[in-house]
Design brief:
The complex is a heterodimer of chains A (58) and B (130).
Chain A lengths: L19 E6 L4 E6 H6 L3 E6 L8
Antiparallel strand pairs in A: 1-2
Chain B lengths: L2 E7 L3 H10 L10 E3 L4 H5 L3 E2 L4 E2 L1 E6 L5 E7 L7 H16 L27 H4 L2
Parallel strand pairs in B: 1-2
Antiparallel strand pairs in B: 3-4, 5-6
The chains are: A mainly beta (58), B alpha+beta (130).
């Protein structure tokens, strides 16, 4: 995925470019990756929940 | 709830692990914790704060086709209402199966009245909701 595809400030109604992200998966107790492409392929909805920082008061 | 919820901050996955292990409040949290140390994903969604290097409290619902259907961004000092997130998600699910309907502001759950935009509905929304 080229950096040029990911611009900033996506809006409602726009298609999200496929992306991957490193994760810590509490269910497995291990690290892994999530991929929007794979989630879409599995027919899943995705909810992204951003927050400022770990060890703060979410 | 039928969706993959991913929490994301600009911390690394290693810090996520440490926090999850350390903080009792997170004992029952099972969502994958996304690491965005470069701010790449946060920028993509317009929630990256260049001043602090942190992500604002943004929530985005993306359908299985990859389209963003809802976005909500709060400043640092305000938490989000999970009931409202669930309401939006349920409404999205309903609307994805009933594409000719609309969910009014007070729609809460499956079974509540929806609206079907048509000539008859113009100026008669109040009556339709009774």
């Amino acid at each position: 995925m080229g950096a040029e595809e990911i611009c900033c400030g996506l809006k409602v109604g726009q298609k999200v470019p496929d992306f991957e992200m490193d994760i810590y998966d509490p269910k497995k107790g291990d690290f892994g990756k999530i991929s929007l492409k794979k989630l879409k392929k599995a027919g899943k909805w995705t909810i992204l929940f951003f927050y400022p920082a770990d060890f703060t008061f979410v | 709830m039928g969706a993959e919820v991913i929490t994301v901050s600009t911390d690394t996955q290693f810090v996520h692990l440490a926090w999850k292990r350390d903080e009792k409040l997170l004992e029952n949290v099972q969502y994958p914790m996304g690491a965005d140390p470069t701010g790449r994903i946060s920028r993509m969604f317009g929630v990256y704060d260049e001043e602090t290097g942190l992500a604002l409290r943004g929530t985005f619902i993306i359908n299985p086709e990859g389209v963003i259907l809802n976005s909500e961004v709060n400043y640092y000092n305000m938490g989000r209402n999970i009931d409202e997130l669930m309401r939006k998600f349920k409404a999205n699910l309903h609307l994805s199966k009933h594409t000719d309907e609309g969910c009014p502001a007070k729609w809460k759950d499956e079974g509540d009245k929806t609206l079907k935009p048509s000539a008859d509905l113009v100026g008669r929304v109040y009556e339709a909701l009774q």
